[in-house]
Amino acid sequence: MTQDIVPGTPAVTVTGVDKTFETRSGQVHALQGIDLEVAAGEFVSLIGPSGCGKSTLMRLIADLDQATSGSISVFGKPPGRARRDQDYGIAFQQAGLLPWRTVAGNVSLPLELHGDRGRAGRVAELLEMVGLSDFGDRYPDQLSGGMQQRVAIARALAERPKLLLMDEPFGALDEMTRERMQTELVRICAETGAAVVFVTHSIPEAVFLSDRVVVMSPRPGRIQEIVPMRLESTSSRTEALREDETFFAMVTAVREALHQGSHAPRGVENR
Fold this sequence. Notes:
By secondary structure, the chain is of the alpha/beta class. Helices cover 34% and strands 23% of the residues. The strands form two sheets. It has a six-stranded mixed sheet with strand order 5-6-7-3-8-9, with helices on both faces. Strands 2-1-4 form a three-stranded antiparallel sheet, covered by helices on one side. Helix 3 (103-113) runs parallel beside helix 5 (145-156). The longest helix is centred in the last third of the chain and has 18 residues, at 175-192.
């Protein structure tokens, strides 16, 4: 469970972050001058062209890699400390479920690793939250792709993190399942109050889910523009929003920001 989080502390603070990879053919500048703050309880999507560093930034926040320069904090802590304190959960495009464990066994894994004695009750609560109460004894290969992703989200929420890091978790799903999962995620986030940093290639998905959409430029990834979503509260969004004129206007705003970034000269930040 989360520990030692001071009320009002931002979920994520990224300051002046650069990331350079050393390859056989030379240096690759993945990120340049990233400054970003995500408030507690806020849903922020990262969107941009392939190779712009969205997933790299996510990995830096998650302590799966280290920045070349600059600083990152998660609830006021270095990412490594936040990881040890279980301040965040992670979900990726592939659900990553263990095929030899049941649905309940997969969800309970983080709790088992940290010796949580009340895990049976917590697993039941999580399976109800994601609509899988009747599937606890099933195995991953008995589930659809959307159901597997629900299990992955439940597992990420097992230790009640105040931050979810999600890297294209619905990218491999068909469009109808993807939209249903987006609606489910809105509900789950409203119930848990968790902040979310969400990587996606889909403009409508980013608009439907987010309080703000961070548009990134081609490599080296920079923040091209941050577009606030002038929509109803994320906690009250429903399928009907997809047919709203304001929704289409926000999709257009994000698309225009992306197109502006794709034509910006390399090495020149256009904020």
